[in-house]
Fold these 2 entries.
Entry 1:
Amino acid sequence: MADGPFKVSRRDLLVATGAGAVAGGAALVLGVWYGRRQERFTKRVPSRSQPFAPSIYLAIDGDGLVTIWLTRSEMGQGVSTALPMLIAEELEVELDAVRLEHAVANRNYGPQLTGNSAAVRKLWSPLRQAGAAAREMMIAAAAAQWGVSASECSARDGHAIHGPSGRRSPYGGLVEAAAALPVPAKPRLKPDDALRLLGRRQPRLDVPAKVDGSARFGLDVRLPGLRYATIVRCPIFGGDLAGFDAASVQGRAGVDEVFELDGGVAIVGDSTWAVLSAAEVLDARWDGDAGFDDAQLAARLERGLEAAGHVAREEGDAARWKSGRTVQAEYRTPFLAHATMEPINATAWIRDGRCEIWAPTQAPQGAQRMAMKLTGLAEPNVIVHVTLLGGGFGRRAANIEVRDAVLVAKRVKGPVQLVWSREADVQHDVYRAATAHRLEAALDSEGAPVAWRHRVASPSLMGRTDELDPLMLHGATELPYGIERVEVSWSSVASPVPLGFWRSVAHSYNAFAIECFVDELARAAQQDPVALRRKLLQSAPRHLGVLEKVAAKAGWGAPLAAGLARGVAVHGSFGSFVAMVAEVRRGERGVTVERVVAAVDCGRVVNPQIIEAQIEGGIVFGLTAALHGRIELRAGRVVQSNFHDYPMLRLADMPEVVVEILPSEEEPGGVGEIGVPPIAPAVANALASLGGEPPRELPISHG
Amino acid sequence: MPRHRFELNGQPVSVDVPDEMPLLWVLRDVLQLTGTKYGCGIMQCGACTVHLDGEPTRTCRLPVAEAAGRRVTTIEGLAGDSLHAVQRAWIAEQVPQCGYCQSGQIMSAAALLRRARRPSGAQVEAALAGHICRCGTYARIRRAVARAADALAVAPAWTDEDAGAEDG
Ligand code: FES
Ligand code: FES
């Protein structure tokens, strides 16, 4: 698509190849890197125009230009810097010398879903190996040209170097020769002490375009003849269109077409404004059960807590419940919307037997499969380009808007950009589940907890009613505290509200309930919250490590200014561990969080400054939820509609944040979500120690 | 269709669109300058901020008719021959995450620093109170504004020209 706004990687379609063990021409994929998936990858691979394309992730052309294909979506979490760093480190090229392309959806890339904080975790080895293999091939090609042994050669800054003679050859001049060489099956990775990029602060590659207006998000796709569209849907969950009066919007300036589509009304026009303002005045009637509201939800959650529930973990001696004193508390968390800064959108163009999609999506392959189903077109004819994402947080794995865009594109001529207004986003999201928690513990005569019971009641992300939905208990089942008797269970609550993945998913509410309850136990036993956790975390060294670090760094126990209090929380998620201490004040303007100290153990570190940014961002995301976030339901629909009634933390509310990253040799853990879970309980625990009823319901200002 | 003329990033432009069409959509959909963003459409988030005769102005509810005859500067026109001091500071402090809110934040910060070369914390908070960053880059925004102010203070030769194509 030469006329598209994005650099489209030539013919990134599925191309059959009789791949021998040669890296030339139609490209070869290093199947050995892909473990069990080897077979699938070696069958068909994307072709490359560059002469040297030794893997699906990178290619080098005759000018030495390195192209790296990003197989994860950049939504602010920094993958478009972290992933190239893994390749550039081993390939021995400077980070700013690489050119990035977002990979189009293609199953030969392996899973392209961006989620579960898994990008670096999953690609740490494959990308380093891809870079190392290419480096070894460059060195081998140079050594052959010079007639020397490869063992006397090294590589640096895009050149192969012969040590004894000091001869240097730029990669660009070696690509033809290197492409004829076999791809090493087991390339040697650089030893840790030779690493130049990994573990060090590197500027993000996406920042320059994000300060001068040139960064292209989904909404910025502009194509010749592009038109705009929106779909107005029934505001009542599960409801349907009863009828509409097309004349209420037809004839408005810029409105071209109005038609029924997919249980709603599609409006197509010549500007975003034309269709969004028409949507506001469209006269449509809806059918639906308007009975569901917050009171019903609360009653169902209550009943859910009383139900037997599905057991996820039950271990230790039940007799420990008879040890003496018991403590009990209940917690509640609301439905939450994602509110990605870039409103929901996707662009589609169906013509000449092809369907082309431009989408800020976390799930390009899911988008491709969906479009294949909707259009009946085969995989190579459905091309999904991934743009930058103006925030994802899990919302953009759902692809509802891609479906919308394809459905409209099937009905109209030319490319169409499907846009959801902010109001549609807030009212038709896939929400973080509302939950209720009952926690109980038995304390021995010393005040130490010896039995623990955590019941969660909530709607099910996986749609389960009569069996366990383990997703809803992430962060609860794997309770790290050393307590003899542990019972964790969940019961399903019926709700018409669609659910989705929301940054840190179940960890967001389970950490709140658990960490607040641990402070309840500390109060009941008149123990210091850090001391109690320390005692209970003796066999959870990484939790303990971040706890000790944060306590030291935050000056736990040191006197504070009048009116300020500290609260602590620790939580592990996505292979990483985070402890936070929040310093909080309750004033006339409500709750003020003045300072947050975070200690993070996320295993091997790729880029510390991105980790710090993700923790800062996770704190803001979690604080927004803790202090303001609440989706209310009335008459079967969402009450909130935009930022005036679904408020976000703003600059003046931003606490000072200190992030301490612990050195670690462990496997890399996730970083994009781990900053969210601990902040709400840290703040609630601080407020509890200021006196009064401890907050047990989120948002805090509401409870 | 009425014709509306204004100056955009130093160039005269004219567009034939309805009077009430918000400037945001004229910029994005008609003139294809997509650096100015849609975030809420109700003057709550600041993503759509441009300079109107040098003043930071949200454009999602600003009818194009009100821009007639005036000078509009968007993020694309903020830099002159080199980046604006605020943009440089944004890079130095590595502010953006997803980046979607940053055009608006930068436009407001640049306008603030023309008004107040040494803004207090409260002035920074007030100038950026109308902006939402869902990614939570606020701490870095604060640092970047301070850095830009420092850069401007040690550069007495700084003129509005250095600050971009627009004047104040
Ligand atoms: S889009 Fe104008 S303030 Fe949000
Ligand atoms: S950087 Fe993503 S909204 Fe601000």
Note: Residues 3-78 of chain B form a domain with the Ubiquitin-like (UB roll) fold (CATH 3.10.20.30).
Entry 2:
Amino acid sequence: MLEIKNLQVKLEEEDKQILKGVDLTVEPGKVHAIMGPNGSGKSTLSYVLSGKDGYEVTGGEATLEGEDILEMEPEERAAAGLFLAFQYPVEIPGVGNMTFLRTAVNAQRKARGQEEMSSTEFLKVVREKAKSLKIDAEMLKRPVNVGFSGGEKKRNEILQMAMLEPKMCILDETDSGLDVDAMKLVADGVNALRGEGRSFLVITHYQRLLDHIKPDVVHIMSNGRIIKTGGPELALEVEHNGYADLIEEQA
Amino acid sequence: MALPQVKQTATDARLAALSLPEGGWSRPAREAALARVQAMGLPGARDEYWKYTRPDTLTAVEPTSAAVLEVGDEAPVFGARDRLKVVFVDGVFSAEESDDLALEGLTIERLAEASDIHWAKDLYGTLEANGQTPVERPLAALNTAFATDGLLIRVTGKVAKPVHLLYRHESDSSDAILHHVVKVEEGGDVTLLESGPAAARFNKVMEVDVADGAGFHHVRVQGRDHERRAATHIFGRLGTESTLKTFTLTVNGVLTRNEAVIELTGDDAAVHVAGACMGDGDFHHDDTVFITHDAVNCESRQIFKKVLRNGATGVFQGKILVKPDAQKTDGYQISQSLLLDEDSQFLAKPELEIYADDVACSHGSTSGAIDEEGLFYLRARGVPRGIAEDLLTIAFIAEAVQEVEDESIQEEINELVAAWLGRRRD
Ligand SMILES: Nc1ncnc2c1ncn2[C@@H]1O[C@H](COP(=O)(O)OP(=O)(O)OP(=O)(O)O)[C@@H](O)[C@H]1O
Ligand SMILES: [Mg+2]
């Protein structure tokens, strides 16, 4: 599904290398987790994959179902099936959540040559999915993420994911800021989307989310590289021992 | 005091080219206004109040020629609404194209035809004259003196449907001077819509007297003709517990100066003056607002949003004056520009002058580019760049558009803006 080879990225504005050769392959239908210390480059990886400005790819490649995504516009990557649940979802005053969702859903459909969703169908689907994430109608009416609590923003990300039905979902610390019940809701949302060849890359600091979303593979990222890859037990190891040993082992 | 020579010469030349209409009952008011113009002189480039906007084409003897924009088969603005339509072609009332001027709750007459003893006698030119201090507005006095047409609208009840003044521009060299007087009597309530470019050069004054407990809602869409010029004034006076809300959308027009001069004279009144403009290229748009609080517990809001690209210029001069006894005043003023490129500019002069001690007034002015974070967020969800930019642009003006009470009109405004943006993207 997603294949990243020796990806090297520096900041556009300054001469600072952030990703120093990342190799990662997520197979169709699999859930991979990335853990790693603060500042190790996890969010940078997710931004570069989704096409944010400000980064320069200095080497390597990234493909989604065999297609080079690094040359695509962000909206083309989204239409190709890539989705990023932001670590810090953006507030957009003046744009209603519903307008935003419908515009996004229909833009992607259009890009894929599908018919637009009628407004009645859209409403029905959105209400249903919002309900399962405990997002009430009033929140849907508000401007995108404006006045949402941290946890509400994260649930809103998952609602967008559920509406857009992407193939490759990257969740950047979607669990941070969530209370125990919300974490369960989000995990249920993710699990409901699992299967059908859909893949996930879950960036997290905590084992807790991985209790609910069982990963197939766990990677440890440090200083711009994947330094270790293993099974779910690797996450438990980090939870107990921290990163120090792993980083030392590498050095 | 003698006027500076340049100003004297320009004023004399302009006045020599105009003749004072016979005017009947309005004649004394016209003569008084003419005397005001002669005393003040027409605006000049050196005037502080015209620091950001060049008045020369507005005061010149002849209007600059302005091509009429062909809009093809676009749906006319406000065209689908149930309303009483009054049409002016190049500043002249068209009986043929207008509806019958009868509507429950109000009376409408033409200024040019009103009978000899008229209710408007006490109002015509009065609010304009009041509005000449502390800042002079000579173009408005010129209008009072020389207006050739306009409407006198007296509202006595709650009017079920809006009155729509539709201005058509047909001649490249038309020079229109219109003066409307609106008197909303106690308990009356009316919505006035205006649309269209009016003329190659348009000077318009609207005096609005809103009595105790009355309401006046005004939504204006200034015509899209690229080369037209306009100087407009709204003079408003508000009684106790009355409301005046005005919103203007301006898209295109090489020069527009919209002044609003409002006086809150009765307690617990509210005035909202809002505007959004979309400027592309040779476009200069000036909102000049002066709100005087002269009563207790009144609210005023000024909300102006300007979207500028390709070297367009936006100007905002806004003032809140709170008189010594106007306690519990709640004043708010915001002017913001969205600069879609580096060639465009926004010039703002927000002012507060407060003589009462128990007031809450806030003001702010900002200039900025499109929010890159928001843009990326939208694009990451699959919304193409152009559409994402349009969404953010419409979001930017939303605070001003939301001042329009009727949500269906808000929608229509947003559609007009979206269409304008769309034409620029194709
Ligand atoms: N635009 C930027 N300007 C300056 N430094 C940046 C920028 N983007 C990323 N960095 C730096 O790159 C490094 C990696 O940041 P990144 O956000 O990818 O880390 P992370 O692994 O997601 O950390 P966290 O766990 O705290 O979210 C950090 O040192 C960060 O300061
Ligand atoms: Mg991060």
Note: Residues 97-111 of chain A form the longest helix (15 residues).
